[in-house]
Amino acid sequence: MVNLGDEFPNFKVNTTIGTIQFHEWLGDSWGILFSHPADFTPVCTTELARVANLMPEFEKRNVKVIALSCDSVESHSKWIEDIKSYGGHVADKFPYPIIADEGRDLAVQLGMLDPDERDKDGLPLTCRAVFVISPTKRLKLSILYPATTGRNFAEILRAIDSLQLTENKKVATPADWQSGGDCMVLPTLKEEEAASLFPKGISVKPLPSGKSYLRVTPQP
Ligand code: BEZ
Question: What range defines the domain where residue 197 resides?
């Protein structure tokens, strides 16, 4: 199990592009690792195709993408043909690697097993985990979905925008924020410091408590 802020494990794994050592593969990029219960399953196929189609969005944000499923590289390579066909990019080289976690070693290490979903041999499958890793190899975000709920990758891109912004600027992003939208000044920031950091201005929302903690500023 990896907690937010922890160094993400530097595992060595077989993938559809050969053996990789995770940190070296990541280099100076951000990374997203997303897991799947099994190959040749319907929801997973839609998810992998969606991510393949969103690759320009991940690249724009300097994010390397890697998927994981508990089957062999040989099985993944056959499945990729279905994913490409479903996603409508048949002629293209598949744009990101898929980890072959046949022994479920990574699934156990990263706390990704879903006890409610089992394969034909009764072994638990991996849930739909999402891990976003920073260039410093720290875990910045993790989300777990059950096998029966496909992910919304537009939301994951939105969350990456927030992570990348708040890494450098002393703001937090409010509910349903989209890149370019107003942000919240960090509650820990003193008034004088906030005024100098956010020259575009800060508006304090009046609240029944009389406390001035809801400070809004244009995205820095
Ligand atoms: C799917 O990808 O469709 C799926 C996989 C395992 C359990 C339920 C759904």
Answer: 169-217
* CA 86 to ligand 1 centroid distance, Å: 16
pLDDT of residue 212: 93
Residue 38 alpha carbon, nearest atom of ligand 1? 5
Specify if 77 maps to a domain. yes
pLDDT number for residue 120 = 82
DSSP E strand boundaries for the chain: 12-15, 18-21, 30-36, 63-69, 98-100, 113-118, 124-126, 128-133, 139-145, 171-172, 183-185, 203-204, 215-217
This prediction has a pTM of 0.94
Please list every protein residue whose CB sits less than 6 Å from any atom of ligand 1.
37-38, 41-44, 117, 125, 147-148
pLDDT < 70 positions in the chain: 89-91
Centre of ligand 1 from the C-alpha of residue 150, in Å:
9
Quote the number of domains for the chain: 2
On whether residue 206 sits in a domain, the answer given is yes
pLDDT of residue 91: 64
